[in-house]
Amino acid sequence: MRGLFFKIFVIFWIAQSLIFIISTALIVQHRFPRPDVLMDSLFSSLRNQARERVDAFEAGGCGSLKTYAATHGQTIALTGAAGSNLCPGVPDLAGGSRDGIQFQDHIVGRQMGQQYVWSVPVTSATNKNYVFLLARPNAPEGHGPNPDFLRFAFPQLPVAIAVGGATTFALVLLFTRPLVKLRRAARELAQGNLRTRVAEPASKSRFFRGDEFQALVHDFNHMADRLESLVGAQQLLLRDVSHELRSPLARLNVALELAREDADPDSEIETHLGRIERETERLSKLIGQLLTLSSMEAMNQVDNLGPVLLNEMIHQMIPDAGYEARQRQCTISFHAGAECIILGKSELLYRAIENILRNAIRYTEESSEVEIRLSAEPEEKGGVAVLEISDRGPGIPESELRSIFQPFYRVDRARSAGTGGFGVGLAIAERAVKLHHGELRAYNRAGGGTTVRLQLPLIEGSDNHGQGLRTANPAG
């Protein structure tokens, strides 16, 4: 959202700045006259000044010209119609050329050295022709900004742009803050917190009542209510069905034992009873896992937490998992690079890691190795324990790596039916890890197989002393 805020702010601020600049240019264009109007005014002023200086010259001679030039700080000269300088001691603006300045019918401006000289033809009251010369320092054209524009735009234009930027910042902040809240709530909802809601603005103003943001917040809360209701109903149904199935299963086991007592051990009926017993045990395990998953889904946090040494827990787990690995002639290797102590509930963590390990044993190739690696990694908010369990199985399609943690999800139903399992163990593991503020994900390893990575926050007391390599070989 920070990126969206910045983009909207920059776009609005640039648009406002352009509007201010264009408006200033248009105002300057109407505020100051056009060049032809300026030239007409200049020529009229030069003619009036020239007539006054010629009249003063005929009345008082060259002294009046010198006095006027000294008083007004101007460089002026007066020549005859042929271009001769009439006043000695006055600067020769004609450049000493008798052909350079001639009496003409119109005002002429020309560049002479570092000065720009205006030649103004004048006919006095005595009907004599003169050329009045006025010199100005030359200012090269095309250097620097338009002085009229700068004089009009500063400091008004920078102040206007600054005020526009502050106004834009406030407007963009007003627009994006509700989106930030919605995004934060949507993220929490996606993480499984179905009780997340966005506080609806209690605006009493009719102007802001019922706007699009308020309607979006209302729809989001309605969606969250509906999701929480549907998921709650699904969990309640799953829990109730599992409870109701336990009683018929118990009665079925009693009836199975009674039938076995009356049946002949060598008859075909005993074979059928054995089959019924195995299926009953599978169904009982499934119901037990469903009740476990249902109870964990109803939990928002774990109570009675204590320090748990993951190294010791895995050492205790390997011999039990070895019985299942022995049937496939597999080995289990444990590589511990650190002594990892976390804060958690040992029963839930043991069940989660055991489900992942048994799942790896179930799908790895025969006579292959299941690897367990435990290490500690630093992070911004503290260290984390990283547990990786890898098999040498066929792997999982990349598009389904996140889906394997959903209850009853099967990548290959035919293969899953042959290896056993119900697709609930990984869902239980993921829920247990989330309750411990950890993260669980899977990825395909190089050379074939799948790695399930479990990450849990460490507590003080964990260190990075290597624990070496321990290998369990149930087959041997």
Show the helix and strand layout.
Elements: H1 2-31, H2 35-60, H3 62-72, E1 75-80, E2 108-112, E3 115-123, E4 129-137, H4 147-153, H5 156-190, H6 212-262, H7 268-297, E5 306-309, H8 310-326, E6 331-336, E7 341-344, H9 346-363, E8 369-377, E9 384-390, H10 413-419, H11 425-435, E10 439-444, E11 450-457, E12 468-472
Descriptive report:
- This protein folds into four domains: 2-31 and 154-183, no CATH class; 35-137, Beta-Lactamase; 195-298, Signal transduction histidine kinase, dimerisation/phosphotransfer (DHp) domain (Helix Hairpins, Orthogonal Bundle), CATH 1.10.287.130; 306-472, Histidine kinase-like ATPase, C-terminal domain (Heat Shock Protein 90), CATH 3.30.565.
- α1 runs antiparallel to α5 and α5 runs parallel beside α6.
- It has a six-stranded mixed beta sheet. A four-stranded antiparallel beta sheet has the order 1-4-3-2.
- It has eleven helices and twelve strands.
- Helices cover 51% and strands 16% of the residues.
- It is of the alpha+beta class.
- β2 and β3 (115-123) form a beta hairpin.
- The longest helix is centred in the middle third of the chain and has 51 residues, at 212-262.
- The protein has helices at 2-31, 35-60, 62-72, 147-153, 156-190, 212-262, 268-297, 310-326, 346-363, 413-419, 425-435, and strands spanning 75-80, 108-112, 115-123, 129-137, 306-309, 331-336, 341-344, 369-377, 384-390, 439-444, 450-457, 468-472.
- The radius of gyration is 48 Å and the shape is rod-shaped.
